[in-house]
Specification:
globular, eleven-stranded mixed sheet, three-stranded antiparallel sheet, alpha/beta, 31% helix
């Protein structure tokens, strides 16, 4: 039976590692929880030394390419990269050292899903090197994919049908719950439970994690099918709610149990 584990992240904004309240991106009321004095490659090395796989580097807007490349150089073929990925540049990022590329907005010209773009991209880099970011915002009793740094809603609902379609052309999902991203006030438990019912490929959820115990909660709600990213609550990002070492130990314990 699968087990949920911790997946690390490096969020880049204007070339710096930051933790931002997701719903405020590209607004006049941008809220930043943390700005690191350390470069992106510091975190890449930390994750590499801690044997944390499947982490993602997200470029939040322009001015982040150099920082992203430095992280990928530090841990070649050990991180996924997203932010502005398209058919034109995806291979360049893999050549720069990305294990996988993460795509969202390119798949939604004028906020409408374009299956042909996804098919071409999967053919270009290979399904196994592609992650589709289906980050979303809640609207009533459903979740709608959000693009352009989570500001614009698309015509795609996150549900069994859409995830089945997307999974034909990618090897993983990354799902930020944009409404709770960066708030450290708890995960969207209902979304995590639904993802556990819907997904058939590896999936990472991000948004609201505030305690080491959230890992066990995600494991229980998703039947081990969804992994969890921590950001603003982590001590390596300036807070004290969650110790990075505790998450590393959790992963090591799960991997040890799985190997016995």
């Amino acid at each position: 039976m699968p087990r949920s584990v911790f997946r690390p992240c490096i969020d880049l904004h204007h070339g710096q590692v930051k933790q931002i309240v997701g719903g405020t991106l590209d607004t006049q009321d941008l809220k930043t929880n943390f700005v690191s004095a350390k470069p992106a490659e510091y975190y890449a090395k930390l994750y590499k030394d801690s044997r944390l796989t499947g982490g993602h580097v997200i470029k939040l807007g322009p001015g982040n390419d150099d920082a992203a490349r430095s992280a990928l150089k530090e841990w070649s073929n050990g991180l996924h990269v997203g932010g502005g990925i398209s058919e034109e540049n995806a291979q360049e990022w893999i050549d720069a050292g990305a294990e996988k590329v993460i795509v969202t907005s390119y798949l939604f010209p004028q906020a409408k899903f374009d299956l042909e773009r996804l098919q071409r991209l999967a053919k270009k880099v290979g399904k196994e090197r592609l992650v589709v970011d289906v980050s979303c915002r809640r609207r009533a009793d459903k979740w709608v994919v959000a693009m352009n740094r989570w500001q614009d809603l698309t015509d795609m609902e996150v549900n069994q049908e859409s995830l089945d379609l997307l999974s034909e052309y990618c090897s993983e999902f990354l799902i930020h719950a944009a409404d709770v991203e960066g708030l450290c006030q708890g995960i969207d438990e209902e979304l995590v439970q639904k993802l556990g019912e819907w997904v058939k490929i590896p999936t990472t959820y991000a948004g609201g994690a505030k305690s080491v115990d959230d890992l066990a909660t995600v494991d229980r709600l998703s039947n081990g099918k969804v992994d969890l990213t921590y950001g603003s609550a982590l001590d390596i990002f300036g807070k004290s709610q969650v110790k990075f070492e505790d998450l590393v130990e959790y992963n090591q314990r799960v991997l040890a149990e799985d190997s016995t």
